[in-house]
């Protein structure tokens, strides 16, 4: 009886640790542009896209590009392989996932945060990829 | 969260609420709080003092239910009559919304969705009373139930849908986000909330059973509720997926989004609970497991509400200041801790009292297989829980904020699903208490092929799980192998196909004698069918971008796509400009028109278009056309804000800088009265001579459409052969001076490239997506069949 519970508990804890470790290896950390550039790995950067310089979209290459200001106010050119996500114009802030190639941040995913359906004052992520 | 600020907010909220108690909505909520307190007290007193108090409690609860119906009707009537003095009505509805969409305004915001949850809880309670009464459970169950409702009333005091709007009464409300304007919003959230409400019943029966020292019979009482709650919650989740696929244009039905995951977590645990309840029914084992699972499924419902409503998830990615949900954050956190503590404290108190069951699960018994199945479901729950909760976990352990790639969920769950399918097959042929293989074989229940194939897939599932673990330490050793993913997909496909076949065979055998017992087989064949659809439509979907101008064609996947024209729809609504793009799709001389939608809406000031995909459904695949962008093709041109410069196309000796607008000819009488004159003043710079001149590029603007007719102007008439046309005016809403212009260039004598709309689509072929829909429908239908089995059984018992 007791051994069964002990075995069960070990299995459970073991699995949680496994899933946890796997998560910490597959998770993608948040960083600012400077750090992401220095590390050269895939990161997520949150910030605001600089609306004064409109974004551009090149349909032939299916490439979108815009300037983004991170939380340290550093501005970087971001390129995203895909069409601009829905509601990009309305976005109060954006999170881009990707890494630097030269001076350009190549994003594989853009999360725009828009006025939400649940609360007009707060935001809710909108995924595009 | 600093505590003093929380309590001061709490105090402010209370005083604000009581300050305006004369408001009839507030009055209703106030009365509800009193009635729910009274009902809770009366029911708890009835535990020791008997029937008299039970009757009082029951009447109070019925009153409370009625009050919830009245409050909801009151909110609904305010929405219907556009009473914008209420902040909530102003924020989530508008005069333009149709009647059906006005219904959805009820729960489009936090306040209303809490009211809806509470309303469904009250209504579920209405049906629960006679059920619990018949089984001697009314006092304890309804006592806890009333307490739960009391908590929700407290939330409504702080998230009050009847709060008045400051300042003047607005003429119109802000309306709904147009993405949500779809018939699914009428059905999906209410179904989900009914599922959430019903999921509280197993929890409450579990706590009540512990208090009453009834460790076995409660399973029989709570099982039908667990089954129907799981079925309804599953239906709600599935509708969300269908909605996403049909209108959001992501191309998928499930994105492992935190909001989606949070509703899946209680469902998975509830499915595990149903299986372990069945084990206890037959073997008297897994007593404590069932209590814990019943607690967990309800706690995960509260956790889902917490994740989606308290702002923890969004807070993790964006630091929003002055979060409006501080009080609710506190209350929801308290709610989870309270019900967590209640359940486990009662369980610990009774721990010694629960007689240890003397069961030994034989390896070939059905109870063993079901238990392992439940464990696998919990493993999947843990994986999804960790991924979804990372923002909170990171905050607690002060780790860096991060999110996980979607592949994390897929690669962990894939082997788990293979194992679940194998266990499903094995469980089907086994009997309770276990029979040896020889016995089963003599009854014709099993064949060598079946046994060997299941062992084979079981081992493969375990190997894939092991590979996943090894991959972590050897940095994707296996995942870097070519075709490894295809191998995984094929394993899952074949395992699903086997499970589908075996379940259909069993279903066929069972339906002849006992059609009421087919629920389990229907659900399981649904899971197999769904997995076939998931692997085929996600793993083997093909996508290709195409761009079309009017009357142009493009080819993809053997189809020819032709953009014929566009039709404006919903013309009667002035807040939008909505078009169906008629795309003719031809293959083998057969053609269909697919109609993706692009529209502009006042909700975002018409600054960028909204998209809805067009779908053509075939038996074996869907053709999915998702609009991605709508643009103007101006030919050679430049977009300029004031002060910006560009090199002149066709002649790089020149550059121009946009200086200002010229409105001085606006009152010219020669012009068509519907047009007005506008000009762009530019500075022309000749690099060769290093000379600069200002010049005016005139155009006339159509007042109705805003379209420009350029007056093509030759630059530097002596030396160049290039003309500039002012072809587009891009007004800025905030500051007219920040508006931009588009200048186009052409060689003298050359026809200007006519500005043409160009639409960019992603075209996808999704094989066997229908298997997903039929699969999930079968899963849900199985739950309903299973529920009515208990229902008919009860009737029989009553008739006996």
Summarize the structure.
The complex is a heterodimer of chains A (129) and B (800). With 129 residues, chain A is an alpha+beta fold.
Structural commentary:
The complex is a heterodimer of chains A (129) and B (800). Chain A is 25% helix and 43% strand. Chain A is an alpha+beta fold and 129 residues long. Chain A has a domain at 29-113: OB fold (Dihydrolipoamide Acetyltransferase, E2P) (Beta Barrel), CATH 2.40.50. In chain A, strand 6 (93-101) and strand 7 form a beta hairpin. Chain A is elongated and about 65 Å long. Chain B has 800 residues and is of the alpha+beta class. In chain B, strand 12 and strand 13 (654-662) form a beta hairpin. The longest helix of chain B is centred in the N-terminal third of the chain and has 32 residues, at 217-248. At the A-B interface, helix 1, strand 1, strand 7 and strand 8 of A face helix 13, helix 15, strand 1, helix 16 and helix 18 of B. Strand 1 of chain A pairs antiparallel with strand 1 of chain B.
Per CATH, the class of one domain in chain A reads: Mainly Beta
CATH architecture of one domain in chain A: Beta Barrel
Name the biggest interface: A-B, 51 and 64 residues
Structural class of chain A, by secondary structure, is alpha+beta
The tally of beta strands of chain A, per DSSP, is 8
Task: Give the helix level of chain A as a range of percent.
Answer: 10-25%
Q: Terminal Cα separation of chain B, in Å?
A: 60 Å
What distinguishing features does this structure have?
heterodimer, A: 129 residues, alpha+beta, OB fold (Dihydrolipoamide Acetyltransferase, E2P), five-stranded mixed beta barrel, 2 helices, 8 strands, disordered C terminus, B: 800 residues, six-stranded antiparallel beta sheet, five-stranded antiparallel beta sheet, 20 strands, 55% helix, 18% strand, globular
